[in-house]
Sequence to fold (229 residues):
Amino acid sequence: DTGVSQDPRHKITKRGQNVTFRCDPISEHNRLYWYRQTLGQGPEFLTYFQNEAQLEKSRLLSDRFSAERPKGSFSTLEIQRTEQGDSAMYLCASSPGGLTNEKLFFGSGTQLSVL
Amino acid sequence: ILNVEQSPQSLHVQEGDSTNFTCSFPSSNFYALHWYRWETAKSPEALFVMTLNGDEKKKGRISATLNTKEGYSYLYIKGSQPEDSATYLCAFVGRGSTLGRLYFGRGTQLTVWP
Fold:
């Protein structure tokens, strides 16, 4: 299967701990996206990479959040000093081109619970 | 912040009923509109990407129309089946950015009863 994969599927952590999520996009896709969904809301944009370059970052992302995509392949999203408000589903997606013509291919997400 | 509104928030229909949902978005600075279906415990799956005013797309029993001048899109499901039960999300791509950001609505949750 060559879909988008995310790891882990679920993460429970205590407030103040650091967590890191991984996303492996579809191999031919040069664009990678992170979104976050909280209960009752649609997915919210966090950040976007084209190859290894981080081209856009939402103002929703505080300094505690950082994302990387070394060598333009997999990506990691790190949250430092987690807070209860960080509890959400974190979705990764990839696409072969721009969003004016191409759809997003999503992973299954990482469900984060901060206690 | 761009507002993308979807209605209704939830919908319950009987198997065989046809149904439709609405997505409203800013008519200015329009680039594209996406529709996704998200079944519980699965990944969101793309249905359509629409760019032209008057566009109509069809995939099986599901179709969508687009009006960019007035800022709305309709999604239609003909003869709903229980497997159509999911949350349907629309998302807007606007000009003036890196074109890497989708603005999602909150979705319409559809339940089809057998």
User: Anything to note?
Assistant: The first strand of chain B starts at residue 5 and ends at 7.
